[in-house]
Amino acid sequence: MSLLLAISNCVAQSGLQSFFKPSDTLNIKRQKAVFVSEAAFSAISLVGLNQLWYADYPRSNFHFINDNQEWLQMDKAGHVFSAYHIGRLGSEMLQWSGSGTKQQLIYGAGLGFAFLTAVEVLDGFSSEWGASTGDVIANASGTALYVSQELLWKEQRITPKFSFHTTRFAQYRPEVLGSNFSEQILKDYNGQTYWLSANLKSFFKEAKIPKILNIAIGYGADGMLTGKDENSVIISDLNQPKSRQFYLSLDLDLTKIETKSHFLKTFFSVFSVLKIPAPTIEYSANEGVRAHLLYF
Length: 296
Prior knowledge:
Blueprint: H1 2-20, H2 28-54, E1 64-65, H3 74-96, H4 101-108, H5 110-124, E2 131-132, H6 133-152, E3 158-164, H7 174-177, H8 181-187, E4 192-199, H9 200-203, E5 213-222, E6 243-252, H10 262-270, E7 278-284, E8 288-295
Parallel strand pairs: 1-2
Antiparallel strand pairs: 3-4, 4-5, 5-6, 6-7, 7-8
Helix pairs in contact: 2-3, 2-5, 3-4, 3-5, 3-6, 5-6
C-alpha cells in the first residue's frame, strides 16, 4: 500500500511539474487557453463590479473628475500596484504558453492597463464617481514600470508590494472604510502601505549579497476618514490630523529562491505581491522617526 501511495504521489507531482512548466516553444492550446481565460475573467469581473459597485447609483453622461488630492494619493499608489501585477500575471501566463517576448509585453503586460481603464469607463458613467485622469496616469505608470524593466534589464529588479494592518479609523465610517477585515483591506487606506522593493543582488551582481535580499521604500497615510474634507466634519472629537508616512525596510524576493519545482516558482511569484514583515524605520511629520521591530 505504501508503495502504491508513493507511486501515486510521484505521478501527481510529475503532473503538476509538467503543467506549471513554461513551454519552450509556442503552445497554441495553452495560448488560446490564456486568451480565453483572461477575456472571461475580465468580462466576469467587470459585470460583477457593475452589479455590486455601480448598480445602486444612478447613471450619468460620461464625465471626468479631478480626485488627485483625495486620500493623500493612496488610491493612486493602489492603481500603480494593481496595473503592475495584473500586467505581470498576464505576461507570465503568456510566457507559460511559450509566446514570444513581444506578445508578452503587448498583450500580457497591457492587460492591467486595459482592465483598469475599463473600470474608469464604468466610473465615468456613474453619477457618484467619474473617470479620473490621475487614475489613468497611475495605471499607465504601473504598466510602464513592468515593461521598462523587461526592456532594460530583462528582469524585474524593482517590484511594487503591499502590506496592511487594521486601524481604529474604520469603526468611525465602516460604510466607507469597511465593516470587516476583507473590506478594510480594500477600503481602509489608513492601514495600507505600498512599497517599491528592490533586489540588491540584481544591482550589485559582484557583491556577496544573498540573492533573495531586498531593500524596500514604503508609502502610507494615516488619519483619513474622508477623501479630502477635514475629519471634524465626520467625527468632531477625533483629534487626528491627516499625515503621510514614509518607510525604509528589509524585504525578501521569493522569486529568487532556487528550486526545480515549477509549482513552487508559481507559488513564489503569486505571493511576491506581499511585503515580508521585517524591521522598519518610519518617518512622519506628526510622529517624527520611529522604529518597528516588525512592520506589516
